[in-house]
């Protein structure tokens, strides 16, 4: 069902900033031909956009991408309504409210610890793996193997159905938007509110971890003949959890650089292998990408976690005060409300 304009908004920059050109491995700002030539002429040439035809093709692609982004909200709501009316799930239990039995014991223990009155960061760090202390990247088991399996089966069933499918984000072409499938309410929102929120509040209090009030959740799929890797980017999120669901694969490790707000280039990226069932926690602003898939298929659940109290001050995508535009559902997590007083500081 379409939710229409509501509490959450997106920033107008969505249609003009951070347009991804996979062929040249570049994110660009786009306001028209002249601006594109002026701002990106040399770097585009250095990446192989040399002939007038190359440039014309790029222009056309960018214009199409802007139009696609402008249509995104209403089209997504229409898909969601159609799926709710006509799609027959294979694994109905996935649509039941999230049960503790779906969650790995380590995840339950870490989340439960985090809700205790005396809980602190040191205690939580004993209950998860620190991948990088400096970069504040952590990992822990999230779902049980049977739940991963059931979710994968359901996602594959949906993929093979004749239902309309949206792209998970502006860089991945294959996967599933969980809110379109109706999985936000039973699965992702409880996961965020009951489990991720207490964890993130201890791990990242300075990034809005204690004030997560919306999310965008999707599954990315990598397979031969489809997407195989993901370019370097930062997420439109304060915090991200990325859970490997399966299937069996080689390659596809995540690599991390510095924070986009303080780029130190990707001189020596940190490589982090995906482990099926486990989730990697990182700051949305941490530059990262995914290495090429070797063999098999890789499906990962990615939840971009948003804290309006942080993003209302500064849109992470354009770096300015957000220019609010109505949107469907959680939009891009901006609100008009005065931010509640939470312990946040803007990253610099
Ligand atoms: O492929 C992956 O595991 C990373 C996906 C990702 O970074 C994203 O979708 O934001
Ligand atoms: Fe990402």
Reconstruct the topology from this structure.
Elements: E1 9-11, E2 19-21, E3 26-28, H1 33-46, H2 52-86, H3 105-115, H4 121-125, E4 129-132, E5 137-141, H5 145-160, E6 175-177, H6 184-203, E7 214-222, E8 230-233, E9 239-246, E10 249-251, E11 254-259, E12 270-272, E13 278-283, E14 286-290, E15 293-296, E16 298-306, H7 308-311, E17 324-326
Antiparallel strand pairs: 1-17, 2-3, 4-5, 5-13, 6-7, 7-16, 8-14, 9-13, 9-16, 10-15, 11-12, 11-14
Helix pairs in contact: 3-6
The structure holds 2-oxoglutaric acid (AKG) and fe (ii) ion (FE2).
Describe this structure in words.
This protein is an alpha+beta fold and 348 residues long. The chain has a single domain, classed as Jelly Rolls (Sandwich). It is 30% helix and 23% strand. The chain has helices at 33-46, 52-86, 105-115, 121-125, 145-160, 184-203, 308-311, and strands at residues 9-11, 19-21, 26-28, 129-132, 137-141, 175-177, 214-222, 230-233, 239-246, 249-251, 254-259, 270-272, 278-283, 286-290, 293-296, 298-306, 324-326. Strands 4-5-13-9-16-7-6 form a 7-stranded antiparallel sheet. Strands 8-14-11-12 form a 4-stranded antiparallel sheet, with no helix packed on it. A two-stranded antiparallel ribbon has the order 1-17. The longest helix has 35 residues, at 52-86. The structure holds 2-oxoglutaric acid and fe (ii) ion. The site of 2-oxoglutaric acid has 11 residues, from strand 14 and strand 16. This is 2-oxoglutarate and iron dependent oxygenase domain containing 2.
């Amino acid at each position: 069902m379409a939710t229409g304009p509501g509490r959450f908004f997106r920033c107008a920059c969505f249609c003009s900033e951070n347009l991804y050109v996979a062929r040249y491995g570049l994110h660009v700002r786009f306001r028209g031909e002249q601006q594109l030539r002026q701002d990106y002429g040399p770097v585009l040439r250095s990446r192989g956009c040399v002939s007038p035809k190359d440039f014309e093709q790029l222009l056309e692609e960018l214009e199409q991408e802007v139009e696609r982004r402008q249509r995104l909200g209403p089209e997504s709501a229409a898909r969601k309504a159609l799926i709710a009316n006509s799609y027959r799930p294979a694994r109905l239990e996935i649509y039941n409210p999230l049960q503790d039995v779906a969650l790995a014991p380590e995840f339950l223990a870490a989340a439960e610890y985090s809700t205790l009155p005396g809980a602190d960061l040191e205690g939580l760090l004993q209950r998860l793996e620190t991948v990088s202390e400096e970069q504040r990247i952590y990992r822990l088991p999230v779902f049980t193997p049977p739940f991963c399996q059931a979710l994968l089966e359901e996602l594959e069933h949906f993929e093979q159905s004749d239902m309309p499918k949206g792209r998970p984000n502006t860089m991945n072409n294959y996967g599933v938007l969980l809110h379109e499938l109706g999985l936000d309410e039973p699965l992702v929102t409880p996961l965020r509110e009951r489990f991720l929120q207490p964890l993130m509040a201890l791990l990242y209090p300075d990034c809005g971890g204690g004030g997560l009030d919306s999310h965008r959740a999707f599954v990315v799929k990598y397979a031969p003949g489809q997407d195989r890797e993901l370019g370097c980017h930062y997420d439109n999120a304060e915090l991200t959890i990325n859970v490997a669901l399966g299937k069996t694969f080689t390659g596809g490790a995540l690599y991390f650089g510095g924070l986009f707000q303080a780029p130190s280039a990707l001189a020596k990226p940190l490589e982090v292998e995906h482990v099926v069932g486990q989730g990697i926690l990182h700051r949305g602003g941490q530059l990262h990408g995914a290495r090429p898939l070797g063999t098999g298929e890789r499906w990962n659940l990615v939840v971009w976690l948003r804290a309006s109290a942080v993003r209302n001050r500064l849109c992470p995508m354009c770096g300015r005060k957000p220019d609010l535009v109505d949107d469907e559902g959680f939009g891009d997590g901006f609100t008009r409300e005065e931010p509640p007083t939470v312990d946040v500081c803007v990253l610099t």
